[in-house]
Amino acid sequence: MRKRRRARLESDPFAPVEDTANADAVAAKEAKRAAGEARAVAGPGGSAESAPRSKSLLARAREGLGGKAARRSAATGGKAAGGSSLGEARAASNYARSRAALQAAEAGPAAAKAGFGGRLAAAVSTAAPVLGGVLAGVAAFVAASLILSTLLGAIAGFWQDEQDKAMIEGLPGFITYDMVLEALECQEEYGHPAGCTIAQVICESGQGDAMSQLATRDHNLFGIKWASSFASCPEVAGKASWATHEEVGGQVVTVMADFTVFKSDADCIRFRSRVFLQNSRYADNAFIKEAIADHDSDKMAEGLKDAGYATSSEYVESLKSVMRTYNLYRFDGMGVDDFEKGAAGGDAIVQAAYSQLGVPYAWGGSTPGVGLDCSGLTQYCYRQAGISISHYTEDQLKELTVVPLSQARPGDILYKYGHVAIYVGGDEYIHEPRTGDVCRKATGISYFTCALRYTG
C-alpha cells in the first residue's frame, strides 16, 4: 500500500490535494522540529557561542518551508482562481505554524545576544558599587596625601619661623631675621659694624612696636633722601614725597622732601653700605675708618654724625642707648655662619632655661625639674643643645671661651666669680639665685664679669 502510494506521488504530478497536504504536514513538522532545536540551542539566555548552530537549524527550517511552498504551488496550479477546499485551508494552517516556527528560529540568535548583553549589564551593575568604592578610596587617599603634605609644610614653616625668632631674641618685633642677616653680610663685605646698622633701623624707623610708613610702604629704613643718581641702582624702585622733621638752628621744623623707595628691606640695607656710605664724606671719615678697623659700633655712630648724616644733636646718644638696651654690640664682628649656627644652638639652650623656671635651688643639684644650683642649670641647658660641660662654675670658665658682655649672645653663659646664668637676650638672664629661692628671670647683665661661649 505504501509502495503504491509513493509510486503515485512520484508518477502523478497532479495527485489529490489530500496527498499534497500530507506532504505539507511532513514538511511543517520538519520545520517545527528544526525551529524547536534552534530555540533549545539558543534558549532565552543563550550565549553568543550558540549562534552558529542556531543559524544551521534555521537554514533547515527555511529549506522545509521552501519545499512546502513549491509543492503547494504544484498542487493548486490547476485550480480556478478563488477556489477553495479543505486541503487548501489545512495547507494555510500548516504554513502559518511553519512560519511561526521560522520566526522563532530567527529570534534565537538575537535572544542569545540579548541574553549576553543582559548578563554583561548585570555584571557591570554589580561591579559598579565596588568600582565606585575603589575610586572613592583612591580619591580619598590622594586628598589625604595632599592634606598631609600641606600640613607637614605648614609645620616645617612654623618651626622655621620659631627658629628665626630665636635668632633675633631680645630685639624689637619689627626687626626681622632678613634684616639682621643682611646687616651681617654687609659687615663682612664692607666692614660697617652690624650693631650700629641695626640701631639705625630702630632709631630711624621704629615707632613703638611698629615701623614708620616710610619704612613699611617704601622699605626706606634709614630716611635716605632721593638723588637722581640712585635711579639706576638695582636696589631702588623709585622715589616718593614725605613730610619730615628736621632740626634747623636748634628748632625742629617740618619740611616736604623726596625720599628713595627701595624694593625690599634687605635691598635698603645693602644700598646703605654699597652706595650711600661709599660717598667720600663717609668713606674718608676718620671715625668711620676706625669703626671699620675695630668692629666698633660706637665709633660708627660718632662717624655718621661727624660726617653730617643726621641733623639731630642727640643722634649719637640715641644710637648708643639703643645699642645698650638691645645689646647690639654682640653683632659686631659676628660672621653670618656664626649667627646661623650659634643662634640655632642658643635657641635650644634658652628654651631649656625657660623650662626650668620655678625649679627650687638645691646646692650641688643636677636634677632638672627637681632641684638645681646655678652651674647645674647651665650644665643641663647646654646638654639640651648637645654640648657637654662640667658642673661647677670655675670648671665652666676654663672649658669655654671668654667674650665681653657687650658681645654676649642668647645662650651664652654669664659669669662672675661663684655664680653663672643663661643669657636670654636684651638685658635679661635666667639663673638659680640661692638657697631658698627658685629658678627665675632677672634683668641687668652688668652684674656679671663676662660671657662664656662654646666654640667647639
TrEMBL record:
Residues 343-456 form the NlpC/P60 domain. It holds the Pfam family NLPC_P60. GO terms for molecular function: amidase activity; cysteine-type peptidase activity. GO terms for biological process: proteolysis. InterPro entries: MGlyc_endo_b_GlcNAc-like_dom (IPR002901), NLP_P60_dom (IPR000064), Papain-like_cys_pep_sf (IPR038765), PG_Endopeptidase_C40 (IPR051794). Residues 1-57 are annotated as: Disordered. The keyword Acetylation does not apply. Gene3D superfamilies: 1.10.530.10, endopeptidase domain like (from Nostoc punctiforme). Keywords: Hydrolase, Protease, Thiol protease. SMART domains: LYZ2 (SM00047). Residues 27-36 have a biased composition (Basic and acidic residues). Belongs to the peptidase C40 family. This is Hydrolase Nlp/P60.
